[in-house]
Amino acid sequence: MKRFAWCLFDWANSPYTTLVVTFVYSAYFAQKFAPDVVTGTAWWSRAVAVAGLAVAILAPLLGAMADQSGRRLRFLAVTTTVCVLATGTLTFVAPGTRGEALVALTLFVLADIGFELGMLFYNALLPTIAPPDKLGRVSGYGWALGYAGGLVALVLALVGFVQTEQPWFGISREAGFNIRAICLLVAVWLSVFSLPLFLTLRDTPRQILSHAPSAFRGVMAEGRRLLQYQDAALFLLARLIFNDGLVTVFAFGGIYAAGTFGMTLADVIKFGIAINVAAGAGALLFGFVDDRIGGKRTVLVSCAALAAATALAVWAPTRGWFWVSGILIGVFAGPNQSASRSLMARFAPRGNENEFFGFFAFSGRLTAFAGPALLGVATQLFQSQRAGVATILSFFLIGGGLLLLVDEGRGIRRASPAS
Q1: What is d(CA 52, CA 352) in angstroms, rounded to the nearest whole number?
Q2: How far apart are CA 229 and CA 186, in angstroms?
Q3: With b meaning 16 or more CB within 10 Å and e meaning fewer, what string describes 176-188?
Q4: CA–CA separation, 85 vs 184, rounded Å?
Q5: For the CA atoms of 125, 129, 134, 135, what is the dihedral angle to 10 degrees?
Q6: Which of 4, 56, 305, 328 has its CA 20 to 30 A from that of 62?
Q7: Model confidence over 178-207: pLDDT tens digits?
Q8: Which pLDDT belongs to residue 363?
Q9: CA distances in angstroms from 241 to 238, 244, 292, listed in the order given
Q10: What pLDDT is attached to residue 206?
Q11: Checking phi first, is residue 203 left (phi over 0); if not, alpha (psi -120 to 50) or beta?
Q12: Are 396 and 242 in contact (CB under 8 A)?
């Protein structure tokens, strides 16, 4: 039951990434809030960059506080609430002036910070609910269920809010309110389906209450100690690079589909549905592959495949070829994330999971502004979204190259209590 409740949280939070970040709201913002799609792409890239930098700064500190206090579920509840409130409020900000655009971007940044910090505490629960020999498949179950949740939410958005003359619940189509109301759907979805985790799992509070100064000292000490875990540190360095590619793909997939290939919002949602089906299947299948060949090899395979798929997306002369690239990205994005999570769980010393997953979030966000920022600069410089998307390729290649230096077996032995 605990494993199911943990996996269900992936189902609960995935519609945020699929509907808000990747396929619907981001494309809607670029088209409706900005004077043109190139400017909208640049504005969105800066918001993603700001959120990423904030998460990079906060993640190690909050991870240390969660470890010291033993109250990771309380931290998860707070960050989830922030994401729910900010996402729901996006519904009521209509496009108009630059002021409205700034308000929408600010709310998105808050929602994204809440979501990403919540993933820190959620991921850190993995080693407590799965044995070492099943970390890969349990992580894969979570990602697969998450993609299924994103898929169902996309279908509901398409049928109930986009492709209908009368949206559900009497929602108006005026000023695109039916599209913005999808944010409210995401907020309610996350609120409802996250409850089983909070009702099933329990914190184990410690006697010493955590506070920021002591947590900061703990982060500094843990940062120095991290260097003793050579393979964990090398993995985090590699992830610092290749995860930038994933962050950028997720943030701009819908914008690129609409701007370069002329997809309507309904087309983008159908594209997202196909990708989620592929991603769910990939995450489920590669969860077993991960346990068999190891997390490092699984991530390496996914980085190579994602690089090839990105190159295809840049070159794609027709919408059909772009669909092929999108399906390939879907198949290998899930395994990349799932195997990265399980590999970090194997490398994290027992009792310090939150701090190590704090560094995991840190590595995923420290330079997460670089991919979106570089894409935005290249898009504006060349007045081409293709040029912007081409910059993503380098992140998968460089990050994958660094991962070759990691010795997974040595890293696992170093993290074990007997070492």
Answers
A1: 23
A2: 39
A3: eebbbbbbbbbbe
A4: 9
A5: 0
A6: 4
A7: 999 999 999 999 999 999 999 998 767 655
A8: 67
A9: 5, 5, 25
A10: 59
A11: beta
A12: yes
In the chain, how long is the greatest CA-to-CA distance? 64
pLDDT at residue 188 in the model: 96
Neighbours of 199 (CB within 10 A): 9
For residues 150 and 14, is the Cβ–Cβ distance under 8 A? yes
- Tell me how many degrees the CA angle 392-146-173 measures, rounded to the nearest 5: 85
Q: How far apart (Å, rounded) are the C-alpha atoms in residues 49 and 241? A: 14
Region for residue 130 given its phi and psi (left: phi exceeds 0; alpha: psi -120 to 50; beta: otherwise): beta
* Residue at token pair 């240390």: 64
Mean pLDDT, rounded, of the chain = 84
From the number of C-beta atoms within 10 Å of its C-beta (0-12, 13-18, 19+), residue 217 rates as: exposed
Residue 90 structure tokens: 């996006």
CA distance linking residue 65 with residue 201, whole number of Å: 19
Q: Who has greater pLDDT, 397 or 30?
A: 397
148 is written with which tokens?
């299924």
CA separation for the pair 42, 44 (Å, rounded): 5
pLDDT in tens, 290-304: 888 888 999 999 999
Alpha-carbon span 408 to 240, nearest angstrom = 17
3-state secondary structure of 301: helix
Q: Please check whether residue 255 is in contact with residue 26, taking contact to mean a CB–CB distance below 8 angstroms.
A: yes
DSSP 8-class letter at 402: H
Check whether 419 has a pLDDT greater than 50: no
pLDDT of 220 strictly over 60:
no
CA 406/CA 242 separation, integer angstroms = 14
In the predicted structure, residue 322 carries a pLDDT above the cut 70:
yes
What value, to the nearest 5°, has the Cα angle with vertex 397 and ends 391 and 400?
A: 140
User: Which residues make Cβ contacts (< 8 Å) with residue 269, sequence separation at least 6?
Assistant: 23, 24, 154, 157, 158, 162
The answer, yes or no, to whether residue 223 has pLDDT greater than 60, is no
CB atoms within 10 A of CB 85: 15
Using 50, 70 and 90 to split pLDDT, how confident is the model at 352?
low
Average of per-residue pLDDT across 38-48: 84
d(CA 172, CA 161): 10
The Cα–Cα gap between 29 and 37 comes to 9
